[in-house]
Amino acid sequence: MMLASSVSAAPQVEGTLFARGATDLYHENDYEDRSLDHEYLLLESRFYPSDRVSGRLGFKLDRLAFHGHGRNREELTPLLWETYLRFEGDKLELTLGNQIIRWGKADEISVLDNLSRQDLRELFTLRAPERRRPWPWLRARYFASSFTLEGVFTLFPLTPRRHDFDSDWAVFDHLLRQIELSPFGQFFTLRLSKQKLVPSLRNAEFGFRLETTQGNFDLAFSFLHAHNRSFYRYIKSFPITGFSLKHPSDPIKDLLDQWSSIQIVSDRIETRVPQDNIFGFSFETTYRGAGIRGEVAYHTSRVFLKEDLTSVRKPYLRGVIGFDYNFSHGLYVNFQFLTQRIINYSDKIILDPKLDSYFFLRLSKSFLRDFLTLRVDSVYGITTRSYYLNPEIAYKWRDSTEIFLGLHLIDGPRGTFFDPFDANDQIYLGTRINF
Amino acid sequence: MRMQKLWGMVMTKLLASLILVLFLWPCYASAITAEEVARLTFERSEGSDSAAEAQMILINSKGEKRVRRLRIYTRDDGKFRYTLIRFLAPKDIAGTGFLSKANLKTGEEEQFLYLPALKRTRRIAGSFRFHRFVNSDFTYEDLERHHPSRYHHELLGEEEVDGTLCYVLKSWPKKKKDSAYSYWIRWITKDGFLPIKEDFYDKKGRLWKKFEAVKWGKVDGYWAILHWKCTDLKKNHSSHLIIEDLHFDVGLDPKMFTRRYLERW
């Protein structure tokens, strides 16, 4: 029997050059960023020394810069991208190294996509595939005739990449700058004391996944022992006691209102990286021309933020179901419904209600033989009545070169997840060149 | 005497019937039905498997060209027909893989798409058939072999195309939503049941696309189209699918037609 190679034997270097600049539509606050630009160069090579062994080498140079309020910040990060060795036996496959592993079967919104590092420096304004960064895993897959069993293991604790301060998308937004500019800026400063986790068995992450197909249903059950994957850090202690955050988009207002009742006990915000167990189920099928996909995740200990700006860990149940359909006239629809419930909810939790549900809708239509695409991504928070809209027009003027122009429009009532990003409406222009 | 008369009548009727059968036999033998033409076209043998390199050339109304490169593998195990397509160029689609598993008896098909950027294989629904095939004028539906049971068929007659005698077969979907077209007419070679010309009509009954086999012939003993031209009459552009280095019965490993292999990029 011949196993035809789907790739060329000689390694070739392939690359992507990406650049996107965004500027705020409104300049509402002095401390806000006015614009940002994000560029990266990705170089990758695949090699196949034999039928059984393959590998990949990847390198990325990433630059992200924020501009505004007279303080430009630039971050240039060299990253080892997907770099691994893979052994492929008849039924067993082993992969060791930096790799992007995708669990879950849902599309844009996934509750089980927890095995790659999320780049949250621009939060949800980067699409899911762009947010994923590889992570060093040992991955073993056993392909039986009726199921696939997968195991993953890493000594390196994985946490999302997100700024703490000094960006419109940071955990604490521009709190430091706001304090500095406020009347009480002279009285105190804040600094973050982060727990640093070293690679060790104690800090290891591991998981299992069983995948099977029944008829035209693909099913998967998974378990992952991981560290905190939420948007927030686990804040063990906040240096201001007696404080209660009522206006997440304007904490200084709360500080001013509560100035007489608060007490500043130190200048350090202490954070920890707690562990979490994630049980998952996902499925995928087709029915009458539509693709149907769903996921359920149960977290034993998910991190949430409280109004005193410390954190709490709660069990958390999340589910997403969606469908997609291509109409014969070229319109593509992808709809998802996400619902998430905090178990043993506490009233002190902010930004996340006890039961929170969202709709996601992607509409896209292509013209000029698919070289021109109009697309709208929208998220609507049913519980919170907040929304995120991302219309975009993309044109491939050459096979290798795409240019795109779009908007990020965000609105959320006070105290909701989208509230702190209310002032971040942007227009952006970018290009992606493949070579 | 009565017996002789009766025997004579029986013999006369038998003789008349025999003459009638002999006289009509050639007509009867050639009276193939529309359904049979559709079935024989669908069941046309392509060997146990095949492997080919192909290029798709897109030509716009200004005559500008863009080229896509792909590899196409097929396998037929008597119950299912498997197709694996791997896109190699240009870079933005390189690595994308498409796998289909068609039940030869029922026509039901499972399809999977692997997109390297998403790092996962998606099971894709029937409506994906309306998607353009790598920016070309072909859709995934156009590249299917049209399981006869899902369509109505009418034999319009016989015609010569470039000196080759063909059946002219009109087909239309039993369920309208199963196709982007209202109907299509195929010119199918009498020798080999190869559709060498196809006209596709839109939902309003207007001629939309024309497919023409620019080059066809026997490879390793099997009839195959080696150069397809598809013209979109509404948009005034065309696509050429050129099959290169085609081989049948090469002994491909069945493992190639699995999701595991699809993700091997």
Could you give a short description of this structure?
With 435 residues, chain A is mainly beta. Chain A has helices spanning 128-131, 175-181, 251-257; strands at 12-24, 35-47, 53-67, 73-80, 83-88, 92-99, 117-118, 132-133, 135-143, 147-154, 191-194, 205-214, 217-227, 234-237, 240-241, 263-264, 268-272, 275-287, 290-305, 311-326, 331-342, 355-367, 372-381, 386-398, 401-411, 426-434.
How would you describe this structure to a colleague?
The complex is a heterodimer of chains A (435) and B (265). Chain A is mostly beta strands and 435 residues long. Chain A has three helices and 26 strands. Chain A has helices at residues 128-131, 175-181, 251-257; strands at residues 12-24, 35-47, 53-67, 73-80, 83-88, 92-99, 117-118, 132-133, 135-143, 147-154, 191-194, 205-214, 217-227, 234-237, 240-241, 263-264, 268-272, 275-287, 290-305, 311-326, 331-342, 355-367, 372-381, 386-398, 401-411, 426-434. Chain A is globular, with a radius of gyration of 23 Å. The mean pLDDT of chain A is 91. The relative contact order of chain B is 0.16. Chain B contains three helices and 13 strands; from the N terminus they run ααβββββββββββββα. Chain B has helices at 2-30, 34-42, 259-262, and strands at 49-59, 65-76, 80-89, 97-103, 109-115, 120-124, 151-161, 164-173, 183-189, 195-201, 207-219, 222-232, 237-248. Chain B has a 13-stranded antiparallel beta sheet with strand order 6-5-4-3-2-1-13-12-11-10-9-8-7, with helices on one face. Chain B has two domains: 1-31; 34-262, Lipoprotein localisation LolA/LolB/LppX (outer membrane lipoprotein receptor (LolB), chain A), CATH 2.50.20.10. Chain B is α+β, with helices and mostly antiparallel strands. Classes of the chains: A mainly beta (435), B alpha+beta (265).
